[in-house]
Amino acid sequence: MEVNFPLHACVRGVSRKEMSESDRKEPNPKRKRTPLIQNAAFLKVTLEDLQTEINSQGCVDTYQNGTAQSGKKASAEISAYNTSLKNYTTIIEKLDKMLPPEQKKSKLDAFTNDE
User: What is the reported pLDDT for 6?
Assistant: First the structure.
């Protein structure tokens, strides 16, 4: 599955000071959520692609350094998957904290009562 996300739309080159000043001027929570949602969507697709790669190629690569040294190591895909999963989890937690309390409860109820 290929998704063309404009990365420049997800990451803006704004300094921390500029961001905090602009947030004080315009306290629009939607403005904070949109890049997080875009990044979460990008990471979800990336994680799915990496899972496919890991399932087909495995999570271990063999290496050969010269003639005397060889061994096994974690594949590049597994390292990228672990990093992406950590970032995805962090973004989802941030988005969850932005939900109003009544929506959090309803989402929890929907999850626990899911059939």
Answer: 41
Beta bridge partners of 60: 74
Burial of 54 (0-12, 13-18, 19+ CB in 10 A): middle
Q: Is 60 helix (H, G, I), strand (E, B) or coil?
A: strand
95 in Cβ contact with 33 (< 8 Å) = yes
Dist CA 60 CA 79 (whole Å): 11
Tokens of 65: 């350094």
Q: What does pLDDT average to in each consecutive run of 10 residues of the chain (115 residues)? A: 41 47 56 87 96 94 89 94 96 87 69 62
Tokens found for residue 109: 């109820």
* Residues sharing a CB contact under 8 Å with residue 72, sequence separation 6 or more, in sequence order: 60, 61, 62, 63
Q: What proportions of the chain, in percent to the nearest 5, are helix, strand and coil?
A: 70, 10, 20
Beta bridge partners of 70: 64
pTM of full prediction above 0.85? no
Q: Report the amino acid identity of residue 35.
A: P
